[in-house]
Write a structure and sequence with these properties.
Length: about 190
């Protein structure tokens, strides 16, 4: 059984970095299989589900997630809300809403940063020590992957720096290209840390 549970469809994922006391990993695979305290969903403002990772999480987690999302009643862009994990191996799902990418000058960067940062704030509030993120906004919402990785990593490192929390962060990349982008970016920035 692997580190992240017996059922993970893990294609690649041996990289591990440490920032303060936090372990940072990247995995290529399906986030619904990852055994952590919380996985983050790339949701939309309605929180009522959709395609991509959102669809996969609702399908695998079962109807309790949708029921809780309906009660929450939506979420502004850049913010995050929490539900249980239902049938997923994680305990909680943090539903974060990233921006739809327009031209890069419409506040997308700040909103994407906030989506990551606010997810970590919720994780801290619930004392969830391990958290897995997908690459928010880089699918249907069209955020360029090479730009998004910088924002995602900055938000996570800033949070760790400020809060010394959580214990583990996993970036879960679905596609091979997305994984390579994270792999080289983390390699590059951790050279200087
Ligand atoms: N595990 C990990 N990553 C995944 C998975 C998975 N199972 N499935 C897809 N990805 P997207 P967005 C990757 O489109 O751009 C939804 O309809 C995918 O390859 O899921 O934030 C929502 O309801 C991509 O890199 O989210 C919203 O309406 C990344 O997850 C809208 O899409 C994000 O792609 C949100 O768009």
């Amino acid at each position: 059984m692997g580190k992240y549970g017996k059922s993970i469809v893990l294609i690649r994922g041996d990289f591990m970095y440490r920032y303060h006391d936090t372990e940072i990993n990247i995995l290529q695979g399906d986030i619904t299989k990852v055994e952590v305290d919380a996985i983050v969903n790339a949701a939309n403002n309605t929180l009522l589900g959709g395609g991509g990772v959102d669809g996969a999480i609702h399908r695998a987690g079962g109807k309790v997630i949708l029921e809780q999302c309906k009660k929450i009643g939506g979420c502004p862009t850049g913010e995050a809300r929490i539900t249980v994990g239902g049938n997923l191996p994680c305990k909680y799902v943090i539903h974060a809403v990233g921006p739809i990418y327009k031209d890069g000058n419409s506040g997308e960067k700040e909103l994407l940063y906030n989506a990551y940062y606010n997810s970590l704030k919720l994780a801290k509030e619930y004392n969830l020590e391990s958290i897995a993120f997908p690459s928010i906004s880089t699918g249907a919402y069209g955020y360029p992957k090479e730009k998004a990785v910088k924002v995602a990593v900055k938000a996570v490192l800033d949070f760790i720096e400020e809060e010394k929390f959580p214990k583990k962060v996993v970036f879960v990349l679905f596609g091979e290209k997305d994984y390579s982008i994270y792999e080289s970016y983390l390699e590059e920035i951790f050279k200087d840390i």
